[in-house]
Amino acid sequence: MDTSVNTTLDFSDTDSITGEMGCNRELDYRTSIYHTPIMDRTPKPLPGASLHIVLALLEGELHGYALMRRVAELSDGAVKMGPGTLYGTLNRLVDDGLIIETTDRVTHAESERRRYYELTPNGRAAALAELARLRTLVHRVTGHLTGGAPA
Q1: What are the helix (H) ranges across the chain?
Q2: Average pLDDT over the chain, rounded to whole?
Q3: Fewer Cβ atoms within 10 Å of its own Cβ: the N or the C terminal residue of the chain?
């Protein structure tokens, strides 16, 4: 027995959601009104390891060991990524479409088996959005600190 509550609404002028004229739509009260594709969603901040990797790749493609060195360099040695964290994070970033493996596009010695990675356009946008988010966060926080911005 189907106990769902459905009703048909007749918008004789315009549909309040799509703006279409004379639209008949079926409403399902089991669906949350907050999960519509119309609403803008702010993307979640990248996890720490992912953030460090995409920032390290902003200047161009790197292989795994060079990425570990670049992350350490950008963080002034505060972040040291091991191979497990690095390659697990790289795999997630590839799956998420933020980076791609560029092995066949890089000239390298026949015996070299390094995998190179670079940002996709979405990855570059995510990295730049994270930079902007962090700048805004630092600006807001320093404005609220007693005595103003740090020296």
Answers
A1: 48-56, 64-74, 83-95, 121-144
A2: 77
A3: N
Going 36 to 37 to 40 to 42, the CA torsion angle's sign is: positive
Say if residue 65's pLDDT is above 60. Answer: yes
14 is written with which tokens?
A: 């315009």
Residue 37 backbone dihedrals phi, psi, to 5 degrees:
-70, -10
- 150: confidence class by pLDDT, cuts 50, 70, 90: low
Query: For residue 143, what pLDDT is reported?
Result: 85
34 token code pair: 């907050």
* CA-based R_g, the chain, Å: 24
Distance CA 131, CA 129 (A): 5
79/68 Cα distance (integer angstroms): 9
| CA–CA dist 71, 67 (Å, integer) | 6
pLDDT at 68: 94
Provide the CB-side half-sphere exposure for 53 (13 A, CA): 31
Task: Say which residue the tokens 């390094």 belong to.
Answer: 114
Cβ–Cβ under 8 Å, residues 59 and 118: no
